[in-house]
Amino acid sequence: MEDLIVITRPEMLSGEAGIINQLFAHGLARLHVRKPGVPEAEVRALLEQIEPQHRDRIALHQHHQLAAALGITGLHFTENDRLAQREAHLKELKDNGFTISTSLHDPADLETLSHCFDYAFLGPVYDSISKEGYRSKLPADFRLEKYSFPGKVIALGGIHAENLKQIQEIGFNGAALLGSIWQNPDNAIAQFELLKAFQSSFSHPTFQQTSSIPGLKPGAMDSKIASGNENGNDPFLTTKAIHCPRFQPGDRGGITDVVDKFHFISNETSELSHVDSIRIALQAGCRWIQLRVKDRREEEVLPIAWEATRLCDSYGAKLIINDFPLVALAVEAYGLHLGLTDMPVPEARTLVGEKMIIGGTANTWEDVVRRIEEGADYIGLGPFRFTSTKQNLSPILGIAGYRTLMSQMQEAGHSTPIIAIGGITPDDIGLIRTAGLHGVAMSAALIGAADPQETFYQIQQALC
Ligand SMILES: Cc1ncc(COP(=O)(O)OP(=O)(O)O)c(N)n1
Ligand SMILES: Cc1nc(C(=O)O)sc1CCOP(=O)(O)O
Ligand SMILES: [Mg+2]
User: Fold this and answer.
1) Which atom of ligand 2 is nearest to the CA of 394?
2) In terms of Cα–Cα distance, which of 311, 158, 352 is closest to 241?
3) Domain count, the chain
4) What is the CATH number of the domain that holds 174?
5) I need a labelling partner for 69 at 20 to 30 A (CA). Which of 6, 167, 229, 325 fits?
6) Is the pLDDT of residue 14 over 80?
7) Does the structure show a pLDDT above 50 at 246?
8) Where is 2-[(2R,5Z)-2-carboxy-4-methylthiazol-5(2H)-ylidene]ethyl phosphate bound in this sequence (predicted)?
9) Residue nearest atom 11 in ligand 2 by C-alpha distance
């Protein structure tokens, strides 16, 4: 798949021109300016703020008369506009150097579409999750190669990182992005970078071999490709209904209330996938879940993170993503956990914004101080004892190590919540709490318990 095209939101946004200039600077190939109902003067003012060298990568949906004076060479015709055009006019536009595009909602129209069009948006490809009743017209086995239109066909509607690969497999030449970019304008550039990374990974041989891992089953989105379309909803507005961050900057004063006292750390074994382990923890009653996938590429972690997101959402649990800031951003996770050799907390803060919790690992007093100075919301301090869940463990702290570090915290007047980790069992919690730690993180002791519900009950009692 070649092209990622961004479509503007229909209304004007504050700071929009700045974001658009940055998107171009980050390699955006094409921008569709679609502002139905916005007066010409406002659209002109927006276009004038877009740096002139980027303007030949813009297509206008309305106010075509602005194009020539502003150095814009792209004109887009909505379905209704297209039906009102004469072929001779389209030819004239092509002869005058314009790139022209249009929108279709029925793939059958690709057979009769004027070959003057350089490309066409076809959509919605996916049912809208956010807009009820707004469904795709594409059959489940839809493939693009059957159609004779020689131009590019660009997928539109409900496109996000999770379904980008399937769009390529269907045969689309590109994808038009709206919700995935603009849902949270503060994160527009990071989202674009993530989508670009996924798009380029599809041609990577390692990815192709491993893309059948759980969570990225070919055809996994088939159930979302449905038939029947009828209402007049706006195809450009379809978007995945994603997780809303729940941590608001105003809550920061109460960080000890925000960070749970029990953190479950996912793991996979020969019998269990990460998602299976998370399901066990959720069913046992845990509501703070860390997805900790090791030795996998970002694009392999993302589908697992989506599955974990859906599962945690269904239990009202908070999902923390270990190691992968862009994945945390993509699934709008509640939090991100970073180790000492992962992305530094301040850099991650810039990337994920103010709303996401960021936890950081520490193994020594110097690490604790660094984490506090970096602004970590909580600190995972370990290891308490040997564990085979993590490779390359740091020296074991034991209860004596925790006591020393907690008195140093007290002397220094620090109150960042500290979570003990590493080989912890429910029986250890009493001592760990009396040492002054906020809570504990566990993996094996919960997943491997004969009765995880009973074990979680004991954990809760000990944490009270
Ligand atoms: C709560 C919590 N504390 C510490 C860690 C360890 O993180 P890190 O040092 O990045 O090591 P990995 O888990 O990535 O192997 C954690 N994950 N959670
Ligand atoms: C993920 C992790 N980090 C550690 C650290 O010391 O930083 S120990 C650890 C493993 C936690 O799992 P379990 O409860 O099975 O030991
Ligand atoms: Mg890590």
Assistant:
1) 6
2) 158
3) 2
4) 3.20.20.70
5) 6
6) yes
7) no
8) 387-389, 423
9) 422
Q: Could you tell me if residue 242 is inside a domain?
A: no
Percent of the chain with pLDDT over 90: 68
The reply to whether 69 and 186 lie within a common domain is: yes
- State if residue 277 touches ligand 2 by the CB under 6 angstroms criterion: no
291 CB-side CA count, 13 A: 34
Nearest atom within ligand 1 for CA of residue 380: 3
What's the pLDDT at 163? Answer: 83
91-105, 127-141, 148-162, 164-178: which is most confident: 91-105
Reported ipTM: the value is: 0.99
Minimal-distance CA residue to ligand 1 atom 18: 380
Which of 291, 292, 374 to mutate to test ligand 1, by most ligand atoms within 8 A of the CB atom? 292
Q: Looking at the structure, tell me whether residues 272 and 185 fall in a common domain.
A: no
200 is in an annotated binding site: no
| Residue 382 reports pLDDT greater than 50 | yes
pTM above the 0.80 mark?
no
CA–CA dist 463, 147 (Å, integer): 63
Q: Is 16 in the pocket of ligand 1 (CB under 6 A)?
A: no
Is the distance from CB of 440 to CB of 419 less than 8 angstroms?
yes
Pocket test for ligand 2, best of 389, 397, 425 (most atoms within 8 A of CB): 389
Most trustworthy range by pLDDT among 16-20, 189-193, 230-234: 16-20
Which structural domain range is residue 410 located in? Answer: 249-463
Same domain, 152 and 284: no
Whether 38 has a binding-site annotation, put simply, is: no
Q: Which residue has the higher pLDDT, 206 or 125?
A: 125
Q: Which atom of ligand 2 is nearest to the CA of 339?
A: 7
Helices (H), 71-122: 79-83, 87-95
Q: How far is CA 331 from CA 213, 226, 307, 351, 453, in A?
A: 18, 24, 10, 14, 28
> What's the burial of 52, exposed, middle or buried (CB within 10 Å: 0-12/13-18/19+)?
exposed
Regarding whether 340 and 314 lie in a shared domain, the answer is yes
- Nearest-CA residue for ligand 2 atom 12 is 443
Specify if 98 maps to a domain: yes
- Residue 293 marked in a binding site: yes
Of 34-38, 40-44, 349-353, 363-367, the range with the lowest mean pLDDT is 349-353
Are 89 and 182 in a shared domain?
A: yes
Ligand 1: which residue has its CA nearest to atom 8?
339
Residue 208 shares a structural domain with residue 269: no
Kindly state whether residue 404 falls inside one of the protein's structural domains: yes
Q: Is residue 177 located within the same domain as residue 272?
A: no
Is 244 contained in some domain?
no
